[in-house]
Amino acid sequence: MKIVRFSKEIYDLLYLESAILAYKKIATIDVEHDELNWNCRFTDCEFDEEKTASEFGNYVIDLMNSKKINDCN
User: Fold this and answer.
1) Are 40 and 3 in contact (CB under 8 A)?
2) Which of these, 13, 3, 29, lies nearest to 64 by C-alpha position?
3) How far is residue 71's CA from residue 53's CA, in Å, rounded to a whole number?
4) Which of 57, 46, 51 is nearest to 24 (CA)?
5) Phi, psi of 24 (to 5 degrees)
6) Which of 1, 2, 38, 41 is the most buried (most CB within 10 A)?
7) Mean pLDDT across the stretch 5-30?
8) CB neighbours (10 Å) of residue 17?
9) Residue 53 belongs to what H/E stretch?
10) What's the CA dihedral at 65, 53, 27, 2 to 10 degrees?
11) Whole-model pTM over 0.85
């Protein structure tokens, strides 16, 4: 099991949920939260947990950047 914290100041839950749907075939990702963070727990990963969590974070950032680009058009 791997837990990755995403700051609520930076990451919107909608982007995390969208990424979780995209990753559902390769990992189980559950989200919990505290006052400051979204805490994503990675289990049942088809690939290495560290790599999966890292790529997931990159994917969330890409989603956020795509939204910003679409907002400018």
Assistant:
1) yes
2) 13
3) 27
4) 46
5) -60, -25
6) 38
7) 97
8) 13
9) helix 49-72
10) -140
11) yes
In angstroms, the CA 72 to CA 58 distance is 21
CA distances from 10 to 6, 15, 35, 43, 51 (A): 8, 11, 13, 24, 21
Extended beta strands in 1-73, E state: 2-7, 28-33, 37-43
- Give yes or no for residue 4 having a pLDDT over 80: yes
Are 7 and 60 a contacting pair, CB within 8 Å?
no
- pLDDT tens digits for 27-61? 999 999 999 999 999 999 999 999 999 999 999 99
- 27 close to 46: Cβ distance less than 8 angstroms: yes
Q: Provide the 10 A C-beta neighbour count for residue 37.
A: 17
Count the residues in the chain.
73
